[in-house]
């Protein structure tokens, strides 16, 4: 069936995208080695395993006193536990003393626990009697206020998977492990071929009937945001041989080619013919049931996707988000994760009860999971000093100041990273 303009009937957005993805064989980009200083936003080409424990030693999460927890059992305001001060833990140094029964060591947040200590009493729960003695008014449980060696990341554990897009917290975790270089995929090059006798460069004065190039700048920004490397080939006249040549040249070093203009029906509509003439399978669809962007052309030339885009800037953006970006994501080597897209907030049901103290705004890190037709937010529990609670999380749920928690099944807003 043909439409009123004589073209084959348009197809749905879903069907058009399916045609492209189904006919595109998966080919991973070449990999390069990068310093983590420049790796944020890049896609890992190899799994990363931890070369060591993080942290390498047990350390305090609060300012206070390192103790053997058994020495504090039963302590209260009315019946405190009295402990002798054995010394002070200096930051960045191994303690030069060990705790024997009935002893404590002064320690700051991040300090290394001395031998003999298995917990830390917060400074608020201890009173200084003099320079050599403290009284503890609240007992400490074994492991309380302590991050154990390897509690954040264990040696040989899988830290980040191949295909993962590196975020700031990921590079922080790598730095903490001493990993300063990573292997990532090269950004796929996307050629932008601007066509039209009326198009002139942005720095030109325009004559009647001419318009400055807008679309190549819009596309370049969209491509960069989606993880690609835009390559502007220039502005070309509506001549078959000229456009065909630049398309052929672009396909030699690009993972995708975008031709702007020339997709509407008319005497100068050569885009579809050029795509078919340059290689196979050629045009997969011409016309999509979308507004704006109906005249879109989609095709593949020797496993390289090629799109013929309408000339209107609004249509360019709509077509990019609906068609080009999903295809470009596949070309970057990124692993599929439906929760890490362009949307900033996701509504989800909380998977567990979470308590919160009134007067405190709690930011709960969560990982998203789909069960049946619902999205659930699974709290990532752990001490605030653990970088992996951020690495494993898809976003954060904020419990407001005067709310006493969130109940299981309650719908919450997840702020995606």
Describe the secondary structure blueprint for this structure.
Layout: H1 13-22, E1 31-35, E2 48-49, E3 59-60, E4 64-67, E5 81-88, E6 103-107, E7 119-122, E8 126-130, E9 133-136, E10 146-147, E11 158-160, H2 168-176, E12 181-185, E13 189-195, E14 199-200, E15 211-212, H3 215-225, E16 229-236, H4 240-250, E17 256-260, H5 271-278, E18 281-286, E19 297-301, E20 304-309, H6 313-332, E21 345-350, E22 354-355, E23 362-371, E24 374-379, H7 388-391, E25 395-399, E26 405-406, E27 411-416
Parallel strand pairs: 5-6, 13-16, 13-17, 14-15, 17-20, 21-24
Antiparallel strand pairs: 1-12, 2-11, 3-10, 4-6, 4-7, 5-9, 8-9, 18-19, 19-20, 21-27, 22-26, 23-24, 23-25, 25-27
Helix pairs in contact: 1-6, 3-6, 4-5
Could you give a quick summary of the protein structure above?
The chain is α+β, with helices and mostly antiparallel strands and 417 residues long. It contains 7 helices and 27 strands. It folds into 4 domains: 13-28 and 187-332, MoaB/Mog-like domain (Molybdenum Cofactor Biosythetic Enzyme, Chain A), CATH 3.40.980; 31-54 and 151-185, Molybdopterin biosynthesis moea protein, domain 2 (Alpha-Beta Complex); 59-147, Beta Complex (Molybdopterin biosynthesis moeA protein, domain 3); 345-416, Beta-clip (Beta Barrel).
């Amino acid at each position: 069936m043909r439409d009123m303009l004589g073209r084959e009937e348009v197809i749905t957005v879903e069907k058009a995208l399916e045609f492209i993805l189904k006919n595109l064989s998966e080919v991973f980009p070449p990999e390069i080695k990068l310093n983590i200083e420049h790796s944020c936003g890049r896609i890992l080409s190899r799994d990363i395993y931890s070369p060591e424990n993080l942290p390498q030693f047990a350390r305090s999460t609060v300012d206070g006193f390192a103790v053997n927890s058994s020495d504090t059992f039963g302590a209260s305001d009315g019946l405190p536990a009295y402990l002798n001060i054995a010394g002070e833990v200096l930051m960045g140094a191994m303690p030069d003393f060990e705790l024997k029964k009935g002893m404590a060591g002064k320690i700051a947040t991040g300090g290394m626990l001395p031998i003999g200590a298995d917990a830390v009493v917060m400074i608020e729960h201890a009173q200084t009697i003099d320079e050599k003695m403290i009284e503890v008014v609240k007992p400490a449980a074994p492991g309380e206020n302590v991050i154990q060696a390897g509690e954040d990341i264990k040696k040989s554990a899988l830290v980040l998977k191949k295909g993962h897009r590196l975020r700031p917290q990921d590079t922080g975790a790598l730095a903490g492990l001493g990993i300063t270089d990573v292997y990532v995929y090269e950004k796929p090059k996307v050629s932008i071929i601007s066509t039209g006798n009326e198009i002139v460069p942005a720095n030109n004065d325009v004559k009647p009937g001419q318009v400055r190039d807008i679309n190549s700048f819009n596309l370049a920004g969209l491509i960069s945001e989606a993880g690609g490397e835009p390559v502007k080939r220039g502005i070309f006249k509506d001549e078959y041989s000229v456009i065909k040549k630049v398309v052929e040249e672009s396909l030699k070093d690009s993972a995708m080619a975008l031709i702007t203009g020339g997709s509407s029906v008319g005497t100068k509509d050569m885009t579809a013919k050029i795509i078919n003439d340059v290689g196979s399978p050629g045009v997969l669809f011409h016309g999509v049931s979308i507004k704006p962007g109906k005249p879109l052309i989609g095709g593949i030339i020797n496993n390289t996707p090629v799109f013929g885009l309408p000339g209107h800037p609004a249509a360019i953006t709509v077509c990019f988000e609906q068609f080009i970006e999903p295809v470009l994501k596949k070309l970057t080597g990124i692993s599929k994760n439906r929760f890490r897209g362009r949307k900033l907030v996701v509504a989800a049901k909380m998977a567990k009860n979470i308590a919160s103290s009134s007067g405190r705004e709690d930011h709960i890190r969560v990982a998203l999971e789909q069960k049946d037709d619902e999205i659930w937010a699974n709290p990532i529990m752990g001490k605030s000093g653990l970088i992996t609670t951020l690495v494993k999380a898809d976003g954060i749920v904020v419990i407001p100041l005067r709310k006493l928690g969130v109940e299981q099944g309650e719908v919450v807003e997840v702020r995606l990273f």
